[in-house]
Every structure is written in structure tokens, then in C-alpha cells.
Amino acid sequence: MDEYARPQSEFDDSERAGYRHARRLSARRRGTHRGRGVTKALAATLSAVVLGGTAVGWATESSFDNGFGRSDAIGDGPRSLDGAMNILLIGLDSRKDLDGNDLPRHLLDKLHAGDGQEGGYNANTLILVHVPADMKKITAVSIPRDDYVAVSGIPGYPKVKIKEAYGLKKAAVENQLAAEGMTDPKALEFASREAGRASVVSAVRDLTGVPIDRFAEVSLAGFYDLADALGGVEVCLKQPVQDLEYSGANFPAGRQRLNPEQSLAFVRQRHGLDNGDLDRTHRQQAFLTSVALDLQRSGTFTDVGKLSALMDAAHRDVVLSQGWNVTDFLRTVGAAGSPAVQFRTLPILRYDVVDGQDVNVVDPAAIRREVAAAFRDTPAARSAPTGTVDVVNSGAADGAAATLSDDLLARGYAKGTVGNGPALTATSTIQYAPGAEAEAEQLAAVLGLPIAESASVAAGHLKVVLGTDFRATTQAPAATSTAPDVGKPVDTSIAGDAIPCVN
């Protein structure tokens, strides 16, 4: 049967959700839907997360939650436990508004963005923000847009650049619904975007191995809109840059305040930079930090007029996951003071060319370990290793158990037994004796593996069971000696004057 001629009864979850909610949720939008802004929402959302006490001002407006477009794209996926929250920020490089109309010509000219047919629906900005229950340290992980990952549910595409998971799924579902007789262009746009959202949420969840509890989606014009609302954005460059042909960037080295058009060029430039897209990722992180500082210093959250204008813009530009009560969330964050924030960029093994496209080759298992370790970065996780670790190979490559045991010995753990398990296991785990959960969490921060209590584990021991999903070791693979430089984690705080200086 033709992929685009299936009955609705055979839709997958993302397609069904999009079709079911298209008309109902589309009607909830407010405003004229001019330019829907990527970083306006990304920055405002992350700023709200990290601004601490000042963010409580948002909670004074009872109408705040009701003005957002809403999406059911997360579906019934797994959720974080113990009060933590993972928020996916999705920035679309689309030249369209939420109804599928081209952005105004004058705005496209300011964006150096070509016409409405360029850019497609690529999710060029993907940032996964972990907000722990204690609010002491927020971790924001950038996912390079060209990471080449496995996907499901996209006809003809078993693997794609992660940025394409949205647009390719959207196109497939839009074609299918049109073939089945849906003619309302707004309904088609919303239904197909719902499928795209669900697709990219699924791709990020599968790559990182962690639940996604909430998301916010915005589009290209917001880079300009937010910078315009703030009167420009302050940035810091390590060296002068010039890219007149593509992004329009032309800036000296040092600290400087950019006007709205320059701010967009700053976050979009990749040509002429030492690390291309990776440097652009670091600029996005710096931009978010600068915006949050500006919002705090300008008193936006305590000024009724400024707050009202920011709310109106957020309502025009942001689509949030269904059920996210932002007012309650900001009240909670507001009571936490000013938490530390760490920006990280996921590692890349190497660059390659697949079907004529430049891609980032990644190690999903290593990425999952890194994300798990970053999200578990607690004082307990950073304390000295304790206990004896037994390693059992139940499906990993030959020699993996011995190699891992040696790695852990070098890290300070006592070496336990090493051997093969009686049967293959699909999922690697860390097993611990009753009462040793803290020690298991500490090791999990190193390996990025799930933990499970087991009465069969001896007191004072931990058991690592390597399943068929286990790849590499706690040490970086040899191939990474020439891997692209994603940079070190950037520690900052949304307080004072700490704007990161970037390439």
C-alpha cells in the first residue's frame, strides 16, 4: 500500500496526535502570527529557567499560561523521576509562520534568510535542559544539528541528520493527510508539524537515553525579535570575524553590543569559523546567557509594561508541550535563588559524507553515558570511588568486561571478579546490594548506565552487567584523538556580568 494513502486507523502515535488535535489546538493561538521566533523563545524559556528569583514576576499574570500554542507531541513517553525535569528547546530554521505562510519580505531581508522556500523545517537548534529537583545546578546540552542518527517512522529514511527528523516527518504526514482529503491549509500545517515535533522529540530521546518531560518550539524570526526587544545583545568574540556572503557577520574582536540584525548574524554564522557548526553552537549558548543577563539587568520581570510586552511576544512565538504549567514552574524556580548553569556540547567522533551530505558520525552509547553523567553531576557523584566492582559480559564485545574492569581500577575502584554471564542481556545495568544505592549512583555517573537493586550482589560490591547495547569503555575511543573539538563545558551563572567569550 502506498505510504501516503494509509487510513487514519494505521497512523502511528505522532500522526494520530497531529490529526486529532489540528483544528482544536490551532484555534487556541492568539495574535496575528507574524514572525515566530527561535531564540526569542529559546532564550526566554531558558532565561526563565535560570533567572531564579526575578522569574517569579511571570507568575503574577494569570493569563500567562493560556496564551501559548500547545502540542501533544511528547505523548506517553517516559518521564523523569524524583522531581527533576528535562526540557527540550527546539529552534526551527523555517521561513514560515505557524500557519505555514511565508514571513514578510522585509523581515526575511533583515534575517539574511533568502525566501520562504529556503531552510525547510530543519530543527537547527536543539538544546536539552536538565533542571534537577534541588535547582542547584542546571545543565544545558546542545545537540549538533548534523549528528547522523537512527530514526523510525519516516518513510525511506532509516538514518538522518537529527535536524531533519522534524521536516521529513512533517512532509510525509502532510502529503498523506492531503491525499486523504484534508484541505484546510492551517489544519494541514498544524497536524504535520505535530508529527514533526513528535519525530524530533523521539530522535533526541533515543539519542540521549533520557526522558523528555517538556518542550518549547520556536522559529527563525525570534533571533531578530528578541534582540530588537532588548535593544540589541551584548556578546564577546575572541577574534574578528567576517562572513558577508552568507550570514552577514562582520564584527571586531572583544566585547560589544550588537543591533538586532547583527545579533541574528552572530548566532547564524558558521562559515569562516574554525569549528563551523560547533562554534555556532557555542554562540547560541553565549547568546542565551547574554539574553538572560539582559532580561535580569533591565528589570523586565518586575516592570509591568516590559513584562506585558514580553508575554505578548512569547504567546505569538512559542509552542509549548501540553500540560506544562509555566506559571507554577516559574514560581518553583523563582524560589531557588540563582542556580549555577553549565552548557555542554555532545561529542562527535568524526565528520563524514553520506549520500552527498556532510554529517557528524556519533557514538550513541557514549553520548548516553555522557548525558547521564552530566545530569547526575552531584557532590556524591564527584566524591572518591568506593567499593569493589564485578563486571559480567552478557552480550558486549569480547574483552569488554576486562577492559572496563581495568578502566575502573584506574579510576580508584577495587577490582572484583570478571567473567561471562550465563545468557545474553539486551540492556547494560549496574546492580547493587540493598542499602548501596548511593554507591551505584556514583558509578552510574561515570558509566551512564541505569541502576537496579539486586539481593544477589554481595555487600560492598557493585556488579556491572554488560549487555548487547554496551559499546566502548569509560575511556574515549581511540578514534576520538582526531575528533572535532566540541569545547569544554562552560560554567556560568545568570548573575553579574559573566558573558562567555566565543569564536
Helix content: 25-40%
**Biggest sheet, spatial arrangement of strands:** 1-12-7-2-3-4-13-21
Distance between the termini: 51 Å
Strand content: 15-25%
List unreliable stretches of 5+ residues: 1-11, 13-45, 47-61, 473-481
The secondary structure category is alpha/beta
- Number of helical runs? 14
- Average of per-residue pLDDT values: 78
Major β-sheet profile:
8 strands, mixed
Based on DSSP secondary structure assignment, what is the total number of beta strands? 22
Instruction: Work out the radius of gyration.
Output: 23 Å
Description of the molecule:
Helices cover 35% and strands 21% of the residues. With 503 residues, it is of the alpha/beta class. The chain has an eight-stranded mixed beta sheet, sandwiched between helices. It has a five-stranded mixed beta sheet with strand order 17-16-20-18-19, covered by helices on one side. The protein has a three-stranded mixed beta sheet with strand order 11-8-22. Helix 4 (164-179) runs antiparallel to helix 5. Helix 13 links the parallel strand 16 and strand 17. The chain has helices spanning 13-26, 38-50, 105-111, 164-179, 185-208, 222-230, 260-268, 277-297, 304-317, 326-334, 364-375, 379-382, 400-410, 437-447, and strands at residues 69-71, 85-92, 123-131, 137-142, 148-150, 159-161, 214-219, 233-237, 241-243, 249-251, 254-258, 319-321, 340-345, 350-354, 357-361, 388-393, 414-420, 429-432, 451-453, 461-466, 490-493, 501-502. Mean pLDDT is 78; it is low at 1-11, 13-45, 47-61 and 473-481. The chain contains 14 helices and 22 strands.
